[in-house]
User: Fold these one by one.
Assistant:
Number 1:
Amino acid sequence: MISLRAIAYKTAKKGPMKPVFCAKVSLLTGVENDIFGKPGKRQVTVMSQQQWQLACNEINADLDWLTRRANILIDGYEFSAADVGKVIKLGNDVSLLITGETDPCKKMEQSHQGLEKALTPDWRGGVTCKVITEGLIQIDDQVSIITI
């Protein structure tokens, strides 16, 4: 079973991630209050807890998931190139179209030496998504990945 483990947003481009228990996800703003939530292919970012752990294990570090700067952390699934075009259903209402891979950037290297490289293989950095149906999400919501 796949579940939603964490939600976060940032209000400034280089600002800190702010974790929340629940959030509204909308067509116009992505995750509520997130600076990068404007409509487009990279409206919401989603990361796999398992893939994050693989990256951390590779660099022998116990880093908080917020270091990755993603909006949503799910448990029980690992992303790959085959997921582009699939839909992530979060809870009862929210649907996100997977548009691509979230490429690791220099901020990851600044956070911890070797992190950018550790996130590069096998889509460990997560996926970018576009909101297709809006609603509320909260931690422990059930998640499914479906082909449309």
Note: The helical segments are 49-58, 106-111, 115-119.
Number 2:
Amino acid sequence: MVQVLEKKLQEIFDKQTMYQWEARKTTAEQRAQKLMDLKEAILSRMDCFVEAASLDFVTPASTAQNQIYSVIQAIDYAIENVAKWMQPELVENPQDGEAYVLYEARGRVCIFGTWNSPMSVTIHPLAEALAAGNCVVLKPSELNPNYNKVLLEVIEAVFDEQEVALVQGEADVSEQLLKLPFDHFFFTGSPRVGKIVMREAANHLAAVTLELGGKSPAIIDKGYDLVKAAQNLVFGKVLMGGQFCISPDYIFVHKEDITAFAELYRQMTVGMLYDDGKIRSVERTQIVNEQHYKRIKNLFEDALAKGAVILSGGAFDDDKRLIEPTLLGGVTAGMLIAEEEIFGPLTFVRTYTDVEEVLQYIQANPKPLALYMFSDNENFQQQILASTSSGGVTINGIFMHNTHLPLPFGGVNHSGIGSFHGIHGFKMFSHNRAIYKVN
């Protein structure tokens, strides 16, 4: 069985190795047409994708649709801009000639997806890899078997496998792919597995992009509108059941505001998820599987056993794997929830009286993928930005640095390496080749 798998993957790799030189010579018009074909193939299967998402793990139809539309927006953006991106970038010319940067395809790209947002972490980077003129192998998560069937239909309808191939399977498939000398590996997942990908890529001296995660903080300035902050932060845990790499993990609240904030967090949860005094079980995203559900519940129970208190929420539905957005207080070092990425609808608050306490805590921990701050004070904002590091930042909102395509999206150190979205993805999947021409 292993030999059959190795043979099949090697065949695909060999085809893409041969075709990469043709792919890199494609024009902007040809690349845009391929992206247009990809877009139409996805939109024509919208209902199939929504149904597949509900089969793999229950999620609202609107959530599944929004994930698709956000990727369609990214494809459209690439179509509109690929001709401009492909233009040589002139630099200051020497007296005896000319000099410019030529963005050329890296060649063969391997993209590893993840289960929580299977469209945005496979098709979005694929679009930018294609805009850059690469050949691509996609390996989506095995936790989305029904979604993957539809993805496979899309890929096979649009591409020959010498251009783009989708391969399915578990860890053994990923292991075999990592043995092949791709020119670029793009991985979305945990820091633990990210280290494995980076280590294996080093054997080929391949470029890597690692979209990881970590514990993303939110900071609420004293005097900021707590209603707005609570609304955003609860939504950050309602969306995908908090199973989102940039979902806020913990919240800094001024000591004088903690009682009011906790009550507003409760009210916002009730407003978003309750009907007639009862929490809804429909139109909510369940935890993806029993393993992850038990892991999140263990974080909660461990915290309570060690002295944490429930400030809001706390309802668990074991049968449907649903967890109410829950806010904990009294979380201290040594509790699992303080150390591990939550990746679920739990969060906790830490109080402060001086912003230096906030900065010292964030600086002492690995750099997060996202950082959120709620403040109308420009000096406060600049102080946080100057004294912290994160993949991206949204001020007075949630997730928006991820949705604005002209901005790069990616982590830093523990939360990732490299970034994509728009021209940043095009350049990431390209080699910036220096050209000096003497007249």
Note: The mean pLDDT is 95.
